[in-house]
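Prompt: May I have another protein with tokenized structure?
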Amino acid sequence: MKDKISKLINVFKKDGFSKTILKTLRYFKANYLSKINFIATLDVKYHQKEYVQQLTDIFNAHYDRIIVWRGNFGWNVPLYQRPQHVALELAKQKCLVLYEVTTFTDNVKTIQKVQENLYLVNFNNKEYAKLIFNALNELNKPKYLQIYSTQWQISLAELKKYISLGYKVIYEYIDELSADIIGTKQLPQNIIDKFEYCLKDTKNVYVVATADKLYQDIQNKRGQNKLIFSTNGVDYEFFQNFNNYHVDEEFKEIIANGKINIGYYGALAKWVDYELLRKISQTNKYNILLFGSKYDDSYDNSKIDNEENIYYLGVRDYKVLKFYAKNIDILTIPFLINDITKSTSPLKLFEYMALHKPIVSTNINECRKYQSVFVAKSKKAFLESLELAYSHKDDKRYIKLLDKEAKENSWTSKVEAITKVLESNEKDLL
């Protein structure tokens, strides 16, 4: 409970009283009232035969394994992140994926098909969830529970219950475990408990590490058994296709004012180097265009909105964000260097590559691995790198390098790294 109160306080600091009340009511409805929805219960009982037949048809399809993704990330959120990309690709690689949604983000009463082998499921509909798990218990297929290291809704006891029913666990170690990532004052004990358990259980738990530092951490603590390295990636084809979407007038006016346009999209959080952005702004050479959600109160506390050349343009949906990024000269990753950023694989990095835009980053471990990234070790060096990057924006050899590194980091290759290890061990599950 204290973790939820801590989270609520952070939301209040970020959004103020009115928005906090609204979000709290929506959260309560999505996570509690939806579990005691009598209408949904009656619906499932009344239509039980139809629902059972529907699930029978789904489970009789052709696939190699079943993956139950549990989390409160939702599906229809403005920015597609790793969960959706991995789920889509797992489905293509012969996995039947049951992806948990929330009523906070998704209008799914029972189950909804996204594509072949990928279904959105409302597990808060308890009667329907019973039907699913009863059916799953009868299937002689390898079954997995997939969770994030930062996921705090599922307890260690629930994780162990899945294992007792024959499931293996895919534990995605995606970030340094930090209260700043979770949005609480202290790291929730539930997250710590699951992490410590997953370090010990090398029989039932696969750990997927998304950055070198995280991989090394797990390797040192539990060895290489069922340890998989899979950074973030990119849907390359998506970033090659542009229709006639029209960006808004405010954006057009900014990028046409004669200055070089540099951009960033993603969370505006404590790990962003706001002083670096201020220093760039004060050169008066650049428009700094920022897209994304205010993850915490750090953006407002920085007072960076007062800078003449900085423009916060809010959140754009994943489907249209690329149209804005395509019109920007240089794309950046202006992060502070700390334990969080040393352990992060920036998803935007590979999307920037696929957009064929010059990339300038601070000295982030995972960015240093790629030749196409101009990595700066100081604020002064960052300013110099911006000039160098701008001089390369039309360089055909540099664009070819961006394209090559983007293709090498497709989501297909990232998920293959996972499924190949699962497949190699599945003969022991049947």
